[in-house]
Amino acid sequence: MHSTNLATSPLHQVNYAPKVFDLSKNTLREFNQALHEVKDASTEPNWEVINPKGSHAVAVGAEHPISIDVQGSVGYYCGGMNQLSTITVHGSAGPGVGENMMSGTIIVKGDASQYAGATGRGGLLVIEGNASSRCGISMKGINILVRGNIGHMSAFMAQSGNLVVLGDAGDALGDSIYEARLFVRGSVKSLGADCIKKEMRPEHIAILQDLLDRAGITDVKPEEFSRYGSARTLYNFNIDNADAY
After folding, report:
1. How far is CA 213 from CA 9, 99, 102, 147, 204, in A?
2. Contact 162, 144 (CB under 8 A)
3. Calpha distance 200→20 (Å, rounded)
4. CA pair distance 100, 117, nearest whole angstrom
5. What global pTM score does this model have?
6. Which domains does the chain have, with CATH numbers?
7. pLDDT tens-place values along the chain, 245 residues long
8. Among 58, 66, 69, residue whose Cα is nearest residue 30
């Protein structure tokens, strides 16, 4: 009787071709439904969308450890509520990319419109271009990394998680922030109510280095960033702070 080495058997060397959906021929509903009907992610690991043509809600609610490549730009809410999946947009994304995502990774090769990563609870959102206004609004545990600049009112009421910006930040950064950590390498036009510059301690350097590593960024150092966070004066009403409300 001949033994079989499972590590080198054909079963363990299968390279599955991506399942391709052409949105000029298939409907978006058909694509999203197919994602939800995945039975075994190990046999359907690679998915590809061609001709997205700015479609809204691409790959919303994906919940399996699969890879989804979108070959072009997308509209509103791409990757919303993502769990476990790795979604790469080879283009730019409209408003609300990664909104309320739970886990997994979303990578936008271009720019992202307003409120990217809004209310996100987990996972990693990487924007290789710029992000518009309200990036990370009300974030609740998500990690967001932007290679370019972010617009005004970013991290408004940000509760937890990390927002990393390699470029500059617009007006009112971190307005009414709770306990999220903001790391900005460039300049900040202005800080919002109750947001202050904070000391960059060794534990923050370690957190930032980990996020840069996960995003594949090797050309900057965490020591080049400044940290911003809550002054913790708006948690309860205080008459001395009334003009900040």
Report:
1. 33, 23, 20, 13, 14
2. yes
3. 46
4. 7
5. 0.90
6. 10-232 (2.160.20.60)
7. 444 444 444 444 567 889 999 999 999 999 999 999 998 898 899 999 999 999 999 999 999 999 999 999 999 999 999 999 999 999 999 999 999 999 999 999 999 999 999 999 999 999 999 999 999 999 999 999 999 999 999 999 999 999 999 999 999 999 999 999 999 999 999 999 999 999 999 999 999 999 999 999 999 999 999 999 999 988 665 656 556 55
8. 58
Burial degree of 61 (CB within 10 A; 0-12, 13-18, 19+): middle
Of 195, 198, 78, 54, the C-alpha closest to 127 is 78
- Give the residue carrying structure tokens 């690991």: 45
136 CB burial (10 A radius; 0-12, 13-18, 19+):
buried
Distance CA 163, CA 159 (A): 11
Amino acid at 198: K
